[in-house]
Amino acid sequence: MIHKFFQRIFMRNSSTANTVPVLRTILRKEHCISRNQISPGALKVTVVLQQAGFSAFVVGGAIRDLLLGLEPKDFDVATNATPEEVRALFRRSRIIGRRFRLVHVTYGSEIVEVSTFRANYPINGSMEINTESHADQHGRLLQDNIFGSQEEDVMRRDFTVNALFYNPATEEILDYLNGYEDIEAKRLRIIGEPTQRYREDPVRMLRAVRLAAKLDIQLDEETAVPIGDLAPLLQNVPAARLFDEMLKLLMSGHSLACVLDLRMRGLHHGLLPMLDVILEQPLGERFITLALENTDKRVQEGKPISPGFLFATLLWHEVLAAWNKHQAAGEKPMPALHLSMVEILTLQRQQLALPRRLDSIIYDIWTLQPRFLMRAGHKPFRLLEHPRFRAAYDFLMLRCESGELDMEVGQWWKIFQHADTATREAMLLKETAPKRRKRNRRRKSAGTTDHKKATSPI
Ligand code: ATP
Ligand code: MG
Q: Would you say residue 436 lies in a domain?
């Protein structure tokens, strides 16, 4: 007992203070969170659970954000009730997840995520790779459904700043791992032995990058160091989960900072493999920087973001390079573009499972680009009527602003789309080739590129 006590004191003061939970209660008068900052749904859920004899706390990102003066995105609750016990207490609730079972409780328009305290799977020594059936050969946990105590739950969370428990009834914060101190010091520290924790779930490396940018805090050195070496582990993460995480990162309002940080730490290889090449060309770098800056501004202004548009921008310069290559090899412009689009999206899908529902917007944005150069006859009018005109036009403006296209094209469309019919007619450029010849050429090219029809998803 005494030995354990000294060991705990010792551990707390050492550099591995985040490996043994020691409770510190932060009283209401010592912190800045008040009960009325907690969402009505999360408050209700904790009250109902506590009245039924369970313990229940608001945890994770919400408490961290409130302490940092940010507005939480959502409120999560942790409890010692099992998912079935939670489910029985709330009429509008359902159990979700397989790898990690939890309960979604609906309260008005709010959904509160309620998770049962978990224990970490025992791993034999920090550097040893766990080969039990709950982990893969790299140590990645395949499920996380062993319930445990609150202390155990603290240890299986990712970062100390995410491991604070707030009890709305007492308005106290329970801090087992100096997370409060880390928030004050603006330090992001992984819980436990960093290498082992990244092996268990390599997505934590992406979360580290996203949270550091979002919260404007520094990665602690021990937390940061292994990331470079462990980056290849992302290849073992299911592509769908990587996509979800990548989307969170891109839609965090800090996408530019995140993407640059991913690249600096070598984490982009398994996500956007060609990012290096693109960012090394001034045009590509300018294009991606502008696109991400725009995205961040929109998120910060509370405007909606289209994931399809985002991925269309991130992959555009790869498509351009392939397009040029196919044309240089003798392919006609449109078939060459179609081939390139399919090629790049197929390649990208090997890393991130871009959902098929994004295909149509990505393809539309790309295939409409050459049509912006056709400014004679009926074509500009038809383009204006395309349901994806607005997205394709925003994309065109990025191309112009980055210097890839002459700004004159963008300016023309800017005026043309809002002008009256007479002005539009006057703006049209002269036809460059006789119509008959063009039609023949089109018919011919359609006949000679059957393979295009076979591979093009458009
Ligand atoms: P935000 O909601 O701003 O994205 P968050 O920290 O709340 O940030 P969630 O994905 O909502 O992120 O996760 C809720 C909590 O669950 C986290 O605060 C953390 O304690 C825990 N958690 C999430 N992902 C992991 C993970 N990969 N490994 C360990 N714990 C995690
Ligand atoms: Mg959250």
A: no
The answer to whether residue 227 sits within a structural domain is no
Would you please indicate which residues are annotated as catalytic (active-site) residues?
74, 76, 158
Total number of domains constituting the chain: 2
- Residue burial 211-228, b: 16+ Cβ < 10 Å; e: rest: bbbbbebebbeebbebbe
Ligand 1, atom 6, lies closest to the CA of 61
Residue 79 burial by CB count (10 A; 0-12/13-18/19+): exposed, middle or buried? Answer: buried
Question: Average pLDDT in the 276-301 region?
Answer: 91
Among 57, 59, 120, 157, say which to mutate for ligand 1: greatest number of ligand atoms within 8 Å of CB: 157
Q: Tell me, using a 6 A CB cutoff, whether residue 253 lines ligand 1.
A: no
* CA 323 to centroid of chain Cα atoms: 28
Specify whether 165 is located in the same domain as 312.
no
Residues 218-228, mean pLDDT to the nearest whole number: 96
pLDDT of residue 121: 59
Q: How remote is the CA of residue 439 from the centroid of ligand 2, in Å?
A: 56
Residue 51 resides in a domain: yes
In angstroms, rounded to a whole number, what is the distance separating the alpha carbons of residues 427 and 413? Answer: 10
Gap between the Cα atoms of 389 and 140, Å rounded: 44
Whether residue 240 lies inside any domain: the answer is no
195 C-beta closer than 6 A to ligand 1 = no
**Which is more confident, 33 or 430?**
33
The answer to whether residue 456 scores a pLDDT higher than 70 is no
**pLDDT computed for residue 221 by the predictor:** 96
Q: At 24, which CATH number?
A: 3.30.460.10
Show which of 130, 162, 183 is a domain's final residue: 183
Range of the domain at 387: 307-427
